[in-house]
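WARN no homologs supplied; continuing
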Amino acid sequence: MEKIKCLRYKSEGVPVFEYIEKNEPGFDEAGIRIIASSLCNTSELRSYIGGYKTGYGSTYPMLPGEPGHEAVGRVISIGEGVRKLRIDDLVVMTGHGGDPCHRSYVIRKEKDISAIKPGDRNPEDAAMLEMFGCAYHCAMAPGGESFYKGKKVLVIGMGSMGLCSIQILKGIEEIEITALDISRDKLEIGRACGADFLKKPDEILTNEKFDVIIECSGSTAGQEMACKMAPKTLIFSSYSTKEIKVLQNLWFDANTTIYNPGILTSENFLKTVELYNSGKLNPSLLISRRINASVEEYCEAIEEIRQGRIIKTLMIW
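OK structure emitted
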């Protein structure tokens, strides 16, 4: 029986790579050879340090391949009932529809994966398209692309969610995007992604008015700043388990509408795949490091995530 390689957490702080038996796809399923899986900074760090008591990526020992939920691969086998996919198709996936993604091979339901057309781009980079899907889901919650026409938008935090959000919004007519971060280097990546203006926190006034603020930092400082600025529309694309201070009267006076959209939908993911296939998204701008599927390199990447030095990491299989 053929074996496949996978990441597995035995316990907190103890990731290993092991080999398990390779299965064949069933009805309406495809077998996919993984090219690259993308590390989700939140999930990987939570799994490593044991941050939550319940939920995905917090029960040990984990399933083979957890906490991977972003990947790109090539279809190598298909089951009965598969209608659209073909052998050798390049496909991307999220955490839905089958095996966790930190494996050299997964089985997935056809409806939960999507074919990509990278052209002359490196297909590895498409592994992180789920992150773009999450950003799209959050940014479009107020009413789609037409909502942003003529709006002044502040994006707080130039991590992966913030940079994805800027790429998604940049093509909208008459939009003005300001990127905010404490790091000048990350702000420059924001510029490359399409931001019109770059600012550090001490360069912006709390009474400066924006039509929309998208909070992507996940830090209490960023979240409290977004709340204090009280825009007409406030979107939380990030979350934190820490308490934040809110002056609710500011929201009342500004008639602020608050969105906390949560997990992406399949429709949002498919929309971002369309944007990628049409050349409107550039995941490569966000990739800080590529690693091999080894304990040493994986743990090194986790430490860089802990230090805030990583935007996105790809694990090459």
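The two ends are 20 Å apart (CA to CA).
OK
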